[in-house]
Every structure is written in structure tokens, then in C-alpha cells.
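Chapter review: from sequence to fold.
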Amino acid sequence: MKSIRMALVAVVATAAGLVVGPGVAHAADTQLGIDVGNIAWEQYTSTNSDVAYRLKERSGADCNFYTGFWADPNNDRYDGSGYGTCGPVSPGYMYRNGSKTWDDVRWRARAWCADFAKFAFYWGGAKYTGLTAAAGSFRTYGINNGTWHGRGSGYVPRKGDAAVYDWDGNGSYDHVAIVTSYYDTTTDGNHYVVGGNQSNAVTHVLHGNWESGVVGYASPAKK
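The C-alpha cell string follows.
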């Protein structure tokens, strides 16, 4: 019963910020982290039909909107990748010629958890220089910007942090997702994330802290 109550509290708190049990010292959410976390959460919960459509892969493996956003030459933030289109076209905000525009985005295919997390950093107003389609780029980003909190640091994650995972412990970074809430009495507790490419979709899931392969957290840095 206790674990059920804890999970319910975390779900209710997700949109508002982190929830931490008694006795845990932790830094308050930053406004930047709140903004980044809200972008991820709003993608998952939006009732806009165009946003809801982009939450699942289409027309083959890894075909997704978020890679399309970064790989679309019409986007002022085009990352230079050469991936071909993979079927769908759906609208979304991008910058074209310096103006924020709601326009068609041609979907691309590649592993896309980092593309989703980078999307949240970007629209949340965080620095995104150095982030790539690789989950491990968030660890490098955190180290370079002084916002990395690794295993054993005693850090309690905050809303908007990018949680980086190594599922099999082999030193290769397998996944990244955006923290939306945290609840436990120790730093070895559970956290909730919204992430892309989780069961081929954008989903909101509960992960154990270190037990589920987390290698650390990269907090968003100011521009």
C-alpha cells in the first residue's frame, strides 16, 4: 500500500515539480528545469491532434517527428544530418528565416530518444549546443557545462534533468529521458520521466534511480 501511495503522489506532482520524502536534502527546481520539464510533459499530455499524432513511430522502425524536426533543412536549427524521409509529414513549430512558424515537418528515421530530449531542452530555453542524436551527448554536455551529477554523488534529480541510462552496464549509453518528478526517502528511489523511443513512442514511465541503469543526470544549462 505504501508503494502505491508513493506512486500516486508522484503522478499528481509530475506537472508541478518534484516530490521528495521526508529527510532528503535537495535543491529546489530551477525555472529553466521547470520549463524544460514542462515541454516534455506537454508533448505527452497535449490534446492537440497534431501533437498527439507525433507521439508514436510511423511507417517503419524509428520513423519519428522529433528526428524530422532536427533533420529538416527548412528548420533554422537544422543539424545537418542527411537522413531521408520515411513517410509521414505532420505540422509543428520551427524557426524559418528567424520566425517561429507552424509548418510541415517531414519525418526521419533514427534512434530518437536523444532527439526528443534535445527538443525539450531547445523549446524549454536551455543551451543545446553539443547535444546530438546520441544519448551519451547529454553526459558530455553536463560535464562541459558543469551540470553533470553522476552515480554516487548523492544528487536528487530535479525537474527538467536529462537522465542518462546504461541498461547493461557496459559503458555504452543506451537511453536518455527528461525527469518530471521524483519521490522517495533516499537518493536511491524512483523517478518519473517522459521520454521518446520508449516502446516506440513518447511515454511517461517510472524508473528506479540507480537500480535501473542510471549513470547520472545532466541538468539544463543556461544559454
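Two observations follow directly from the output. The helical segments are 2-13, 31-45, 49-53, 65-70, 113-123, 136-145. Residues 1-25 have pLDDT under 50 and may be disordered.
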